TrEMBL record:
Gene from which the chain derives: mraZ
Signal peptide range in chain numbering: none
Protein name: Transcriptional regulator MraZ
Assembly description: Forms oligomers.
GO biological process: negative regulation of DNA-templated transcription initiation
Major localization listed first in the record, in broad terms: cytoplasm
Lineage, broadest ranks: Bacteria, Pseudomonadati, Pseudomonadota, Gammaproteobacteria, Arenicellales
Organism, as annotated: Arenicella xantha
Family in the record: Belongs to the MraZ family.
Amino acid sequence: MSIPTRHRDALKGESEGALVVTISPSDRCLLLYRLEDWEQVEKKLTALPTLNAQTRQLKRMLIGHADDCVMDGSGRILVPTPLREFAGIDRKAVLVGQGDKYEIWSEAQWVAQRDSMLSVELDESALPSELESLSF
């Protein structure tokens, strides 16, 4: 997968293009982290108690499917076949920025997800209090 030029510097970070890709526990997409960001997530996940079934499942999904990859000089990464299959990525992929990570979607699934999100009117009363002062 070729990383768009405008995102390459942000993904290089301190680890010079060392990245981690894993599955999303909530959507049929992949999560792409800079190595230093992933290490923080992994540390928090491993600190969670293992006696809780949901915690174990989350660890299995995120840590168990995590795979290292390195962005080459042309800004490309190799996404392992099992992860591409999970996300339904065959030819075209979409990279969606999320601040501390990126989502990688198959183009068709992203278009469907985006259209679904746009068709639902936001319920402002259900927004978390942290978003009350946010303005667009």
